[in-house]
Design goal:
With 607 residues, the chain is α/β, with parallel strands linked by helices. The chain contains 21 helices and 24 strands. The chain has an eight-stranded parallel β-barrel, surrounded by six helices. Strands 17-16-13-12-11-24-21-20 form an eight-stranded parallel sheet. The protein has a two-stranded antiparallel sheet with strand order 9-10. Strand 7, helix 7 and strand 8 form a beta-alpha-beta unit. Helix 1 packs parallel to helix 8, helix 17 crosses helix 18 and helix 19 packs across helix 20. The two termini are 46 Å apart.
């Protein structure tokens, strides 16, 4: 979608106001900003009628010289937008001399739709041309389309020439007719009282949107009432720029937030007592409870074999594993491959024993919940007893300090800050204990996503100092993790603004902040920015002291199987001194089938 900020006469002749409007348009995400130009004298022959007198005076009072317009056009381009201009008479373009070709596109306003001399003269300048169709009948519009069919790069805008257009007078279905009549791009020039109708235009095929931008829609200018103020304009750009993503591909894909919610909100079968192999599942030995960590009755019926083949402990979720034989441990050659490349898999305390038995590799990463961290704080020895201390560990700090609060050691709220620091300090205590007992370093990784009101640079500096004080100063460095732009927190999408953008790279490089580089998150965040994640990776890799490896696609397709996303061959990331954790989404399910598949993919190609 291309949103054009029409500056019109809303700058009131002030280059300072025009600069403000340009900056607002750029920050909002507009594709272009555009001027209207009429020569200073002689545009109106007669001003006897009151409407003509008012309009003539407004235009005269809002005049900006060609030199100033060209300077403002340079500002538009420096802000990353295209610069356009409308002319009502081709003679007026001569005021710009040879520099007229510096504009990126031209527009012929609705009132001159049938002015073929103007249209073809503007087209002769060799730039894209936009024609607005307001105030004309279907017959006139179709005649104009036929007359301009030879113009190579032309866009037609549906338009209702009222100022403002009241709700119900938009005739949006005409956009479909317009699209059928021309193979060119079509769009909508909005003078609506309600900017939201632009979304209806998008649904009818518009891809270019022109909307007047003003500092005050209640102002005294004649265009103010049919314009958007900065807040409205930002929201319009946000929604239109996200339109294609909102529409999707036409397929129904389940996103990760939904998977989490279906697990948390759904129910499954749990053993109400110990169930022996060969015993049939029934209402006597099972109970249906949340969360959905296992099979439902429908799943069991589809299997056609309600008798389990493995014992199910009382209180355990009944899973597909209980209907299969125990899985063999990873072969020695693949274990050696993992240890040679320092490959690691994530563990949770509840599945550590099972996964360590199937994957007898040296490196594991503990992904702890806030409750589990609390249990280590209360009884460190009991917690350590659940782990194989012949392994080497890294620790992932919980994202939450409780069921409703994200970790934030810099929070202004005393409760959140104290709770966050308590979690971090306990993880450092655990790291130091593990380091003493295993003889290996224990890297700590954390997701820190909360931006302070003081701004981004200040937040990074304060976070760096906090992590050095709580971690490095005690002998256990803490590495903030690179994050996706869209994070699935609390079962819904949260748009982050830390460790996920090009400006974040600038800061972490400037201050030398060492980090955990999550390649899946890196791909997602760069895709969100429509940038090349490999260039981001080249800048960040020198700071990476710990690596998470998984494939990814789009802006929220995290942790997918190697080869199904944008990562390419992961083998290039296997060398180097860092530990590399295979962050396969839900790879722990079915006793680690996802981890097993990832290790085999890597081992077969790079072992």
């Amino acid at each position: 979608m291309k949103v054009i900020a029409e500056l019109g006469i809303n700058h009131r002749g002030s280059s300072g106001v025009a600069e403000q409007l340009i900056d607002i348009a750029a920050d909002a995400g507009a594709w272009a900003a555009k001027f209207q130009y009429r020569a200073r004298h002689g545009f109106y022959q007669a001003t006897d009628e009151i409407g003509d007198e008012i309009l003539s005076r407004e235009i005269d009072d809002s005049y900006i010289s060609p030199d100033t317009v060209l300077q403002l056009a340079d500002r538009i381009r420096r802000k990353g937008m295209a610069a356009g201009i409308s002319f009502f008479k081709f003679e007026d373009s001569a005021d710009f001399g040879d520099r007229i070709r510096e504009f990126d596109f031209f527009k012929v306003p609705s009132a001159e739709l049938l002015n073929e001399d103007l249209i073809f003269s503007m087209a002769g300048l060799g730039k894209p041309l936009i024609l607005s169709t307001g105030g004309h009948s279907e017959e006139d519009i179709f005649r104009a389309i036929e007359a301009t069919a030879s113009i190579a790069d032309v866009t037609y805008l549906h338009c209702i020439s009222n100022y403002p257009v009241l709700l119900g007078n938009q005739q949006m279905r005409f956009l479909r007719t317009l699209r059928e009549k021309t193979g060119s791009a079509i769009g909508y020039s909005s003078h609506d009282q309600d900017w939201e109708v632009c979304l209806v235009a998008a649904a009818n095929g518009a891809t270019v949107f022109e909307r007047h931008l003003t500092m005050d829609k209640l102002g005294q200018g004649i265009d103010d009432s049919s314009s958007s103020d900065p807040q409205e304009f930002r929201r319009m750009c946000k929604l239109l720029n996200a339109y294609d993503e909102v529409q999707g591909s036409g397929r129904r894909e389940v996103n990760q937030g939904e998977r989490i919610n279906m697990q948390n909100l759904g129910s499954s079968l749990y053993a109400s007592r110990d169930i022996a192999p060969g015993e049939t599942l029934s209402a006597d030995n099972t109970v249906v409870k949340a969360p959905r960590k296992g099979l439902t009755w429908s799943d069991v019926k589809r299997r056609g074999a309600p008798a389990v083949r493995r014992p199910v402990a009382a209180g355990a979720a009944v899973s597909g594993l209980h209907f299969s034989e125990a899985k063999a441990p990873l072969e020695g050659a693949l274990v050696a491959f993992c240890d040679d490349r320092q490959l690691s898999i994530p563990l949770r305390l509840h599945d550590a024993e099972v996964l360590q038995k199937r994957f007898p590799i040296r490196n594991n990463e503990l992904h702890l919940s806030c409750q589990e961290v609390g249990s280590f704080g209360e009884d460190m020895a009991a917690g350590l007893a659940q782990l194989d201390l012949s392994r080497h560990y890294s620790i992932h700090i919980p994202d939450y300090i409780d069921s409703k609060t994200l970790i934030d050691p810099l929070a202004g709220d005393d409760r959140i800050r104290a709770g966050s620091l308590r979690i971090i300090e306990t993880c450092v205590d655990l790291a130091l204990e593990l380091q003493a007992k295993t003889g290996a370093t224990v890297p700590i990784v954390g997701s820190f996503s909360r931006l302070r009101p003081e701004g981004k640079k200040d937040t990074y500096l304060r976070l760096r100092d906090c992590l050095e004080e709580t971690g490095s100063a005690r002998g256990s460095p803490i590495y903030p993790q690179w994050l996706p732009r869209i994070a699935w927190y609390f079962g819904g999408a949260d748009v982050l603004d830390m460790f996920c953008g090009a400006n974040d790279i600038d800061i972490v490089v400037e201050i030398g902040m060492e980090l955990c580089l999550d390649l899946s998150h890196l791909i997602l965040s760069a895709n969100y920015a429509k940038d090349d994640w490999r260039q981001w990776c080249d800048r960040l890799m020198p700071l990476a002291r710990h690596i998470h490896i998984a494939d990814a696609i789009g802006i929220d397709g995290e942790g997918i199987e190697f080869g199904r996303g944008d990562l390419g061959d992961p083998g290039v990331y296997l060398d180097g001194p860092q530990r590399k954790v295979l962050e396969v989404w839900q790879g722990h399910l079915s006793e680690g089938d996802g981890f097993d598949n990832a290790i085999r993919q890597l081992g077969e190609k790079h072992g």
